[in-house]
Each structure stands twice: as structure tokens, then as C-alpha cells.
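Changelog note: in this version the structure field was regenerated for every chain. One regenerated record is shown below for reference.
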Amino acid sequence: MDVGNDIGKGSGNPPWIRSLPHVIVAALSSFLLGYHLGVVNDTLESISLDLGFHGNTMAEGLVVSTCLGGAFLGSTVSGWVADGVGRRRSFQLCSIPFIVGASMSATSDDLGGMLLGRFLVGTAMGVCPPVAALYITEVSPAFVRGTYGSFTQIATCLGLISSFFIGIPAKDVTRWWRVCFWVSTVPAALLALLMEFCAESPHWLMKRGRSAEAEAEFAKLLGSLHVKSSMAELSKSDRGDEVDGVKLSELLYGRHFKVVFIGSALLALQQLSGINAVFYFSSTVFKSAGVPSDIANMSVGVVNLSGSVVAMVLMDKLGRKGLLLGSFLGMAMSMAMQALAGSALISGSSVVYLSVGGVLLFVLSFAMGVGPVPGLLLSEIFPSRIRAKAMAICMAVHWVINFFVGLLFLRMLEQLGPLILYPIFASFCLVGFLFVRNNVVETKGKTLQEIELALLAA
């Protein structure tokens, strides 16, 4: 990543190193999201044996999906929380259900306690992603905003991989699953503690009419040389008199409807591409190909992480739109490979190569665009005044679809078979490609104010 060279050329960019620690602390919330998504993967069997619901698929499904129900609830209020108490305090508030919920799950003696703990953790999982996307977008200098925006995706991957690693002994060590839940309280406590030393978003302060504090935070984030120009940029669009709030009607059928629709559609297509179905059930695909589930989970995790790192490097070079287009195409091709593997046209070892290769290529394509880009792009294209509330609506759409895909995927696979289901996912990927080509604007290297003015003119 040659970010440093950009500065050396005297291009007038602020030093990227100043905002980096703030971005890393915010990314801790994404690490927690990934960890809690993966924590029941290896441990579900021992949890169900310990708490006495082994073999009850409905109860096992609830342990996974109660989290998603909580996340939907959290995401619906995330915008009001982020605008009400500020970005920093939102992170600190989130760490409370993360700690309390994980502790409840770790100490539960029955299914009810486990589900309540999972639900609480879910509410924090719903609030954190939109707040992290907002915060990172608002504190990053324009020329590295894409790179920093990818940190959330990388942190989520690291969280998933950590939960796989920590969950390995669960099969042999009784009650190890309790340790897996306890471990997550450490990064949650760190998030609350370290946020105390981070800068508040100058955009939020300015929106509150607290311009002197916004100047001080800009100095912390960008260096004193860049305070004046950043404040001038900010005052073009952020006016203190707009504190009175945003009506829901404005977002759903007012002048902002178009950007909110683009945002919601992007996140809906991200889920309908089948990514979570692939994540949740990749071990089943690998098992049928004779690959042990530990190796399967790790290879999916490593491929996901590698793709996210590549996206981080390319985000500010190729731009958001190019990555999205390539990503959707790659995903459509890999779904086609998996459908082919399930058909009668292919036999022998080719089936294994096509199905396993299809899963890994799908995860790689996703991680290079459709995974990290939408969250970043949305926080860039929404005008500052509606940013937090609009993100909340889009994330709520995301969690609802995520919940239903998780709930219905196995049932649909049984009823329809891979020959019909995989092409359905592939066609959603192609719809995604066309949607991005026609509706998404490129935001690479532009300040948030430039993007806002360009979209208002459109």
C-alpha cells in the first residue's frame, strides 16, 4: 500500500497516520461482529448436548438466528443512537450488551438463558456496523477513505477466524463452549475503554452546532494545517440549524428516496447473492467432497481475509464501482460452477474440484467487492444530515434478508436441489451487476461534501 508516497509528493493530503488509531479502535466492533457470527459454528453440538436440546433442529436454529433477530432490532435504532449520543458514545453503549449478553450465554444452564444472551449480543451487532461505517467515513481523509473503510471487513474476517480457532477444542473438552463466549468480553471491554481516547466525528459535532469542538477534533485527526480547509468543506453542507432531525417520510418517499433505495437495494442484493448461505453451510459442501470441517472453515476464512486485503489495496485505486462490478460477475460465475457440479453433466473428481473451487472462488469474489464496498459506499453517498438514519434503514433491510436466507436456505436446497437454487443465486448476482452499472456513482478520492453536492445536482 503506497499511501505514504502520496503524502511525500506534496499533494496536499493530510497525514494518514493520525486517523489510523481511531479507525483501528472502531474496527474492534467489526471484530466482535465476526466473532459472534462464527462462535456457535463449532460449538453448537456441545452447547445442545450440555443444555439438553440435542437433536432439536428448531432450537439449534434459534441459537443461530436469535442473534440476527436482535441485530435487526439494533439496526433499526442505530441511526437514532448515533445521532443522539454521538459516534463515540454509541460504540461504548454497544459494548454493554456485548459483555452482558456473552456473559449470560457463557453461564446459562438452559436454552432460555442462552437465547436471551444471544439476543442481547445481537442488538449490539445491529448497532455497531452502521456506526462503524459512519465513524470511519467521517474521520478518514478522502484519499485513504476506501482503504480505511475495508478495515471493517478485514476485522470481521479476523473475528470469524478467531472464533474458529478458539472453538477447535470444543469437540473434545466438555464445557469449552463457555470459554468461547467469555473470550469475547475482552475485545468488548477494550472497545469501551479505548473509545474514551478517540476523536468524536467532526461531522456530528458540526451538525450539533459545536464548531469549536469540531475544529479541535479535525486537528487531532488531520493535523493543524488541514483544519481550515476541512472546516470550510464541512460548512458547505453541514449547517448547525439542521439539528431538528430527519423525518422518516423524507427517507421513504421524499427527495432522499433515491439514495436510500440504492443503498437498500445494494445490501439486499449482497444478501440475495447467497453469501451467508455459503458461509453457514460451506462445511456441508466440503464434507460431501470429503474435506474435514476444520480445514473447510479455515480455508473459507483465509480466502475471505485474502480477498478483503486485496480489496483494501485496490479500493482507492480501482474505485468502488469497478470492484463491485467485478465482484458480482465473479460470484455469478462461481455459482454457475457449483450448479454444474450438482448436475448430471459432470462426474468423478471434477465434481469435487468444481464444488469446492466454486465455494472458494465465490468467497474470494465476495470479499473483493460486494463484502466491503456497500457499507463504505452508503456512508459516502448519504448526505450528512440523513447519513445515520438512512444507514439504519438500509442495515435493517440487510438483517431481515439475512435472517430469511439463513432460515430458508437448507429447506430450499432440499426442496429445489442445487440445480435450481444455485442459478437463482447466480441470477441475483447478475441483477446486482446491472444495478451497480446503472445506478452507482464513483466516490473514489472525493470529499464527502463533493459527493453530496454531485448527488444533489444529479
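Spot check on this record: The longest helix spans residues 20-50. Residues 1-11 have pLDDT under 50 and may be disordered.
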